[in-house]
Amino acid sequence: MDSFFITGTDTDVGKTYVTAGLAVTLRKMGIDVGVMKPFAAGTAQKKGFKSEDIEILSNAAQVNDPESLVNPQFFPIPASPYTASKKLKIKPKISTVLTNFKKLSKLHDLILVEGMGGLMTPIQKNYHIASLIKDMKIPSVIVTSSRIGTINHTLMTCMMCKKYKIPIQGIIINDFENGYPTPQLKRDLEDLTGVKVLGSIPFIKDMSDTSLNRIFKKNLDIKSLLK
């Protein structure tokens, strides 16, 4: 069973919440789901995982994998791995990320890997999130928004996937703010990219297992994701 790299058209498009919803839904289907966020950044939490995103994902998948395995590198400033490593004089742990992914793949049936920012977020000068996905050799799922401008960002993301020869399993629209009507956006994105839109997720207030499972099963084509 393929693992998936959940990437976004930009930062703050809801990758973490989409990944969490997928983790809950697949787990409820009886699939042993693991999660991973290779690089995380921001203000560290005082308790538990340094990254709130890692806490959300681990809770959604109900896994007890060590933080160092799930999140090989945390930067305590809100920046790309490239910028953070330059400012903090810390080298990005790319080889550790790839090794950890292989270890997690042996522990679970499927791994949901959440990226940072967009596809071209720099890790090193000539190594981006797209480079990492290519090295992991797994297909991507693109999370986009419904806001105006999303077509441009989604087209560019799909073009970069094509350039890096990264298979795209589908697009998920995170409809959390006013913008394009989602039926129209779905039509246009599929026509322009040739990539299937797996569905549109409405704004989620309740992050409980029951709520996420219901919303994702109702609004996403899970069969197409897994085929």
UniProtKB/TrEMBL annotation:
Chain positions recorded as Mg(2+) binding sites: T16, D53, E114
Oligomer status and interactors: Homodimer.
Catalytic activity of the protein: (7R,8S)-7,8-diammoniononanoate + CO2 + ATP = (4R,5S)-dethiobiotin + ADP + phosphate + 3 H(+)
Family label: Belongs to the dethiobiotin synthetase family.
PANTHER family linked: DETHIOBIOTIN SYNTHETASE (PTHR43210)
Keywords, ordered alphabetically: ATP-binding, Biotin biosynthesis, Cytoplasm, Ligase, Magnesium, Metal-binding, Nucleotide-binding
GO cellular component annotations of the record: cytosol
Main location per the UniProt record: cytoplasm
Function statement: Catalyzes a mechanistically unusual reaction, the ATP-dependent insertion of CO2 between the N7 and N8 nitrogen atoms of 7,8-diaminopelargonic acid (DAPA, also called 7,8-diammoniononanoate) to form a ureido ring.
Source organism (scientific name): Nitrosopumilus ureiphilus
Residues at the catalytic site: K37
Protein name according to UniProt: ATP-dependent dethiobiotin synthetase BioD
GO biological process, any: biotin biosynthetic process
Record pathway: Cofactor biosynthesis; biotin biosynthesis; biotin from 7,8-diaminononanoate: step 1/2
Any GO molecular function: ATP binding
